Amino acid sequence: MGYEPKSRSTESVKGEISNLSSQIFDVMAIKSKVTEPGPNVQPCESGDGGSAELNRIRHPWSAYGVGNDVLEKGMANLRQGLPEQGWKIEKVGDDGSRNKNAQILAVHEKTLSQAEVTWLKGLDGHEPLIEVNLYSRCFRSVGASGQG
Fold first, then answer.
1. Among 11, 13, 20, 130, which is most exposed with the fewest C-beta within 10 angstroms?
2. How do residues 23-60 score in pLDDT, each as one tens digit?
3. For the residues of 53-100, what is the DSSP string, one character each?
4. 22, 39 in Cβ contact below 8 A?
């Protein structure tokens, strides 16, 4: 059964994703630096040629500036705490990369937003961090300036 994208205002979906993003950081429960960029709008690929009118909100950010011991605790806190916040964990394992980075894939059961959380241990010489990618479901933008 296919998914029929709902008509929603971009601002309301951005707000929803911002709240879920804050929730993930709170559940992580570590003191770290966090990258700044907020949620942004991306077109959805629908496969039927009508993707121009469908969007999703993506919010990528990273927790960094701490050691792997702290990041490991953050990942453990997410595995334990996300289900209590309405998230269904779909996968816990490695991300398939050469470094076998630890990864959690989860879906928020109410909004069906998806989170990909990857612990990059810095084995390649880069700073260790936890990378979070949060995506809304595709939606039809309403209230845009004269479009739609």
1. 11
2. 999 999 999 999 987 899 999 876 555 545 899 999 99
3. GEEEEEEEEEEESS-HHHHHHHHHHHHHHTGGGTEEEEEEEE-SSTT-
4. no
